[in-house]
Structure formats: C-alpha cells, structure tokens
Amino acid sequence: MDMGFAMIKARIAEAEAGDRRRADRVAVAIEGRVRPLGEEGSEARILNISESGFMAETGADYEVGSRVWLILPGRDRANAVVKWIAGSRIGAEFAEPITVEGLRL
Asked: How does DSSP assign 27-61, residue by residue?
C-alpha cells in the first residue's frame, strides 16, 4: 500500500498577532478610496488604522502584494502594500508611517 505524503512548510509565529504589530490600531468608520497604482480604485470603508497600516472593507478585488493608495477625505494619499485579504476585507501596510491624529472615532 502506497501512502502519499506531502511536506508542508509553515512558519510558526513566536508571538500573538497583536504583539507583532508595530503600532496600535484605532477603530474608525471612515469612507475613503483604495486605488491601485495607475488605476481608478474603489470606494472603501476604513475599519481600523494605525501609523503603519489599515484594514478596509471594499467591493473591489485586490491581490496580496498589490501596491495601493489610501485616499481619505482631507488627507494626503498614503502608499501601502496589501498584506492580506479575507472576503471583502483587506489589510495593508503603509510604505511610510502616517499620522492618525484627528482620525479617532
């Protein structure tokens, strides 16, 4: 009897997810846009944000590794890289830290 085995490579995190973040997330409900570089983009609801990244809910399709602009009302746009996707939610890390002052819910 031939038993097929597959090797699975996985990285085991040494810390809990919350411990790996470089900055505290602030819960918000801000309407904005997420726009891939060189494209039109889509409406998005920003659910949380920090100096180093954000989580948004959007109807558009993105891929992990995509470079995007986060555009918020009354703010300069911020360049980010999509790090994860879960259904209609994306998480992205900013290329340069931003200030979250004035964005608190």
From this structure: EEEEEEEEEETTS--EEEEEEEE-SSEEEEEESS-
Instruction: Classify residue 69 as left (phi > 0), alpha (psi -120 to 50) or beta.
Output: beta
- Counting Cα atoms < 13 Å in the Cβ hemisphere of 63 gives 3
Q: Residue 21's closest CA among 50, 46, 48?
A: 50
User: Which tens digit of pLDDT belongs to each residue from 13-31?
Assistant: 433 444 455 668 888 999 9
Total-model pTM: 0.75
Give the separation between CA 76 and CA 78, rounded to whole angstroms.
6
